[in-house]
Amino acid sequence: MTNRLSRALERCVSIEDLHRLAKRRLPAPMFEYLRGGAEDERALRNNCEAFSRVQLIPNTMRDVSRVDTSTHVLGSDIAMPLLLGPVGYAGMFHHEREIGAAAAADKHKTFYSLATWGSSTPEEIGVASAAPKMMQLYIPADRERAYALVDRAKAAGFTALCVTVDTPVQGSREQAWRMGMPPPARMPLSSYLSILGHPQWLFNFIKNRPIAGVSLFDHPPSPQEMMEAGPAKDLSFDDITRLRERWDGPLAIKGVLSTQDARLAVEHGATAIILSNHGGRQFDAAPAPIDLLPAVVDAVGERAEIIVDGGIRRGVDVLKAIALGATACMIGRPYVYGLAAGGQAGVERALQILKDELERNMVLMGVTRIADVDGRFLYPMRGSVDQRNPDERCG
What we know:
Blueprint: H1 3-10, H2 15-25, H3 28-35, H4 42-52, E1 55-56, E2 71-73, E3 76-78, E4 82-84, H5 97-107, E5 112-114, H6 122-128, E6 133-137, H7 143-155, E7 160-164, H8 174-178, H9 189-196, H10 199-208, H11 214-217, H12 223-228, H13 237-246, E8 251-256, H14 259-267, E9 272-275, H15 289-300, E10 305-309, H16 315-323, E11 328-331, H17 333-365, E12 378-379, H18 390-393
Parallel strand pairs: 4-11, 5-6, 6-7, 7-8, 8-9, 9-10, 10-11
Antiparallel strand pairs: 1-12, 2-3
Helix pairs in contact: 1-17, 2-17, 5-17, 14-15, 16-17
């Protein structure tokens, strides 16, 4: 890492700073594909705005000379209740790919999740990180292909499995499509000029030639192979039951938003529910996961861990989710902004920023352990939090 990059990362004191640095370092179409959401991007905006509607009451005059952010989730002890979620084709954002992100997660002793459509293999991630790892899975029409990936992940040392269920069809990410992302969208001249205007990114991209889908295929897949391996439209809860018969570790279902789906997922073998609207990239009318958290906790919280994905930009957001009943949180864009800004070092910076914010806000709340963060800190107190006006609740 050059001194110039090191100084640029040191000047980043928030995830928003990394967001701006990533925007400078990425060509416009690649950055827009990372940043954007579906259609009018209402769900994307609401994910973050929903956290601002949650307030915490601090306790004062407590001994906060030592703070412990560690917790236990998905069968593993981790240093903080923040997991790196699956993001497809990370090689498009930086030449260190998923390997750099996994190594950063290892340094911070937290979960890294490899995407089915990643540009690194489970075997590479197994070498890059000794920390707990989760394999994300889209179940295709050919179920045996999914089972083969599960077996590879297990052999590579992955300890948890995450099935994403909210993508029977790709959401319409209109802003990215207008800029030519993803293929086969037609790229306008302005996008080509932006790529040429980022020679360092272009040089590394050409030199390293990251390939989407090697996580699933272990070889450069053809366009036809990729189309055939897309998420099945006939996915059902019975698939979760069959998967549970092959996988004896923690099994998370990602993309659940309703209490009914949460109950069914648990009944069919899920040990964790990841409340997620895919970062606002799928169904633009979906509510923010944090708004649905209390109801899902009431429905299945005693039978499954609840992980919140979407809208987390500050360490205090993690505390808000835990106060509402979450076990942990998951991030996507925040750490990929770091990856785009500076590879592994950028991801490390993103995690350090969030860890520092988490610790500082715990001190300000007057709490020293994650296990002690609960509904007593909420304003209004838990029990009345979800009695807000429905219009306010759903943005």
